[in-house]
Amino acid sequence: MTANYTEADYNHHSPEIAQDPYSFLAAVRGKCPLGHSNELGGFYFPTTYEGVKRVFAEYKTFSSADGAGLPDQLVRLLPVDLDPPSHTRWRRVLNRFFTQEAAEADRPRIQGLADELIDAFAARGNADLVNELTRPFLAMTTLPVLGVPLSDRQMLSEKLLWMVHHRLNDHDGWVQRYGEIAAYLTNLVAERRTATERRDDLLQCLIEEEFDGRMLTDTEGYQVLILALFGALDSTSSAMSGSLYHLGEHPEDKARLLSGEVPWAGAIEEFLRFTTPIQTLRRTTSKETELDGGLVPEGSFVLAINGAANRDPAKFPEPDKCIISRDARDHMSFGTGAHICIGRHYARVMIDICLKTVLRRIGDYRIEDGFQPDYTASEARALKTLPVVFTPAAAPVG
Ligand code: HEM
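Above: the input record for the complex with protoporphyrin IX containing FE. Below: its predicted structure, written as tokens.
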């Protein structure tokens, strides 16, 4: 077959594209659905659901071993930068901290955190649900699971979120923060090795268990922790704030959820599809391959754009509408295949508790007049703020 693709300079770090990546991607899908961008060193990107799914699923052709970020992160992130079979052995060790059972058993603690955060503003009648609820809620839920002290939440959130969103526009600032986080996390691993008290968290596992037949170095421990922190500090907050934005604009959907007309579990999958908190992951081709009607040479970067898969009308009719009663279970927000998000069960429990608690406590909230949504750019796309107003302490506490 002949080389064929649509030239389109997609760049997920562009603040303009971050506001609306979907119309750009739809325009490419309408031509040859394999896109090629000259940005960020050049890469190919499929725009159909099936094309994106193949990139995630076929690790022998689309390898993660050369890194999953575009542009590259400064350090290797583990286990995301590994291919099976080594990756499979790593996941076997890590999975137990993030099982559905573990997430479900943690519900009482997570519920307490949601109530505590809402208590702080319920009587006020207004709030920024991103900065006062979804971001701190996510961090307070996940840091103890990882074994990272909650007292360092503010510092870690500031540095890591800055790093996620300023990778291209301030290289020196990025390198400096990487150094600070590396020193902090490597020290945390080293400290735990000498601690007398044992804990049941990810950090303990990193110093006690064998990964692929050997113990980890402090640096490798840090490379696992920093990836988990990226996952733990941003993505789920984006799903929760995006869902709350939709419900604030669509009181009829609040009512359908509260009455039981639409089951929560299905609606949460649709919220995940619609918000697509992680927009892109990178792979490198190990051989020439056909993809979305075009040909990708060996050694090329391919960007799997989760958001492209989630808005393919052939898979999800009327993809730009959030339809809470649709069956969205096959969405690509957590990726698929070997690297499917390890934190997805926790993410679903957090979203479930957060949305239900908001509707119970400040259920008549609406989006502040004149609000213009503003989204962060990079792999992670999230609302920067979500100002709402509601009847002060309208609902009973508890
Ligand atoms: C709505 C929330 C979330 C979304 C949309 C999301 C998305 C993703 C995606 C798309 C991947 C696949 C990466 C790849 O294929 O290269 C992934 C992997 C991962 N996620 Fe999440 N994530 C979320 C929540 C979380 C949470 C809460 C944690 C940790 C507590 C987490 C930790 C991880 C880790 C460690 C990996 C790497 C897994 C591997 O390489 O095997 N994520 N996530």
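Notes for the reader.
Residues 272 and 376 are 17 Å apart (CA to CA).
The longest strand covers residues 280-285.
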